[in-house]
Amino acid sequence: MLVDTAIKNAKPKEQPYKLTDGKGLYLLVKSTGKYFRFNYRFQDKQKTLALGVYPDVSLAGARERLAEARKLIADGIDPGEQRKMDKEAATNLNSVEAVAREWFLKNKHTWTDNHARDIITRLEANVFPWLGRTPIADVTAPMLLAVLRRIEDRGAIETAHRIKQMCGQVFRYAVATGRAERDPSADLRGALPPPPSKSMATITDPKGVSALLRAIRGYKGEIITRCALRLAPLTFVRPGELRHAEWADIDLDRAEWKIPPEKRKLKKALKAIPQNFHFVPLSRQALAVLRELQPLTGEGRYVFPSLRTGERPMSENTVNAALRRMGYAKDEMTGHGFRAMASTLLHEQGWPSDVIERQLAHKERNSVKAAYNYAQHIPERRKMMQAWADYLDALEKGADIIPIFAAAG
């Protein structure tokens, strides 16, 4: 057994030599210093673990480290490999990948499963291979731009913009947690070409519609917002008409909603025509949503009042913000997109164009003709709106997709 005086008095010789303590611990004396070492066998291999340099580490300290190493071996863990892993983890704690994964786990619960999967997959494929091991505080705007240029060079301009946005969120999280001074993505404004223009963001693939409807059904936010999200595809009115809906305009017994001209996109001349309201037949499903909401907001003016005050309708950003919260980007789906969704699918499934157009209430330049549009095709529109709601129900439940015009016939 070693004692402190023997270690203190040990002098270097021409060749390094050992002073043994027991249980594999020894002091290696060299001309450059005195080193505590531990010889051990793991999986039939002879290995050596450095335990510190004397006098920075005392004999008692070396024995404590020896005990920790031997406990790891008893648990089936190689102390040398464990040290490497611990060192790598400490080194990478503030790396881009480590911070990004931490940010992802903190926010994952706010996204849909598909959106969360898209985020981490895009980071793993486009960012981590080039910046993953870099300390996040050392990343500069040119370094980030080089990563985005690789995406741009393969023609994925929209993806490059999304990656830039994701990285900005990660960098801002790093700033908030004290691991970076600033967000370098803010310096890249205008560095990427704008993404190609697209038509109004909507979803028209039945499988995508099915997923959206299930996401709406599972929305965890305010009940008023959830009801607005549920009613939007059932009625496909304009977002402004939806949020300005008043109980006085809705007759639940007659299953109809008459939207006054002042709440629609009409010219002043057309607004002067008293009967020029928009007629919305209410399906059984739409009535169910309204009856669910009536005990909550039915005593007030608005069907969907502001969450802050019942004196105003909900904000124009409420529905879009809820869609973002569910994981749908602004170029994937918007509140206005429910109209394009209905128009596309109803046309595809054989409903007469005149019936669809009257229900969409597209603007009519001829004021005389517009005055009578409200009453056109009402029986067909009632039939179509109920068939449409039944179709959406089937999609949400994952049933076989049946052409709704044929089913309605």
From TrEMBL:
PROSITE patterns found in the cross-reference section: CB, TYR_RECOMBINASE
CDD domains xrefs: INT_P4_C
Taxonomy, superkingdom: Bacteria
Location of the Tyr recombinase domain: 198-390
An example Gene Ontology molecular-function term: DNA binding
BP-aspect Gene Ontology terms: DNA integration; DNA recombination
Keyword terms: DNA integration, DNA recombination, DNA-binding
Name of the featured protein: Integrase family protein
